[in-house]
User: Fold Sugar ABC transporter substrate-binding protein from Mesorhizobium denitrificans.
Amino acid sequence: MKRMLKICASFAAIAAATASMPTAAFADWLETAAAPLKGTEISGIFLDRPGYRAIIKLLPEFEKKTGIKVNYEIVPYENTREKQVLNFTSQGDLTMALVDLVWIGEFAESGWIDPIENFSKDASITDPNLKLDGFFPLLLNAFGTWGGTTYGLPFDNYSGLLFYNSCQLKDAGFDKPPATWEELKDVYAPKLTDASKKQYAFALQSLRGETQSADSFMRFLWPFGGSLLNKEFKSNLMSKESQAGLNFRQDLMKYMPPGIVSYDHAEAVNALAQGQVSMITEWSAFYGTLVDPSTSKLGDCLGVAPEPAGPAGRLPALGGFSLAVAAQASEAQKKATWLFIQWATSEEIAKPYVEAGGVSGRMAVYNDPDIKAKYKFVEPMVASWQAGVPEFRPRFPAWPAISEVIAEWGTKMMLGEVTVEGGSKEIGTRTEEILGKEGYYDGKKALLQ
Assistant:
């Protein structure tokens, strides 16, 4: 399956246009742009995660500056897509879409979100320092673009990182974290696991649902040279590389806590925070939870490194969202929502956003000496965003249905209810059936975006 790093023409045009705008006339562009929109109410969905709690902390500044009221509902991730789809299909009240990497195709092709060019061409409502080229290219393309068009700006973006208890590793004789998955399993894990003391080397969030399909199953395909699909969009799960990765995951389970298939992100993070496991691969956004003394016992023992490399190299998990303007909103709400999206993802608030617990998609903030010195996750995260797999999870509209299949059979694999080979065949067959019904094999749909 070929890579989808495609820089779109509209991105280049918008970047050039905003770069040429005179900044003197926009000493306080946000107040000027918002003046006609004072009293407008906009609405969106947030998650109960650090990045959203961070923007909520900063929200009074935006509302005071603009007179725009931002209404939000905090929804569990597992219910977010369904809730938004129901709202969009019933012409509800959401004016902003929270778009996961794997929903961008569905949301764009369904006409639920507007291209940002609809708004960025209007200088009266566009930040003269929008600087689209200030985002990590990997993030803007993976989260915000579809079919050569930019729909959203990166928000609450993650890289998979290795978080570890450096004190436990030191006690076991290690002065650095494992560099490869093989090293983690064969060298580190046996010395860090003592089931009699309920102490385990590693926890892999694997709860049935998107956590199982994306954070667990897909994580062990790419580094081992495998993939969900091949270049013909047929299942690639029976390739030796994909089978090697999935069998590796199964072998690694002996060093994980019992009941690992019920672990969501919170359980995996808490297991490390409380000293029950020595290592986890988790999203960079959870750094704040792991350094917070009210939620973590780690203190100075917290270590952060890039995800381990596999035979195909270091290809870490990529996750996160973009914020986009909902097509169903009124014109005033669209403009107000566009102002909020620009502000929430701007270079202007990137530093306070990171300091409040968020993870910005802006490159410049991670060059700040204070940020680099204060946050251990910055260096490994920035390194992982220099190159990666934009389609770590396929971004096409059929993904939600395929994700359910992977969640079911991936869980059965881990529980031993089906072999890795048997589960892979089931997933492959059912995935191809879904893609066939969607028209991916008869030319009705472009295979890659």
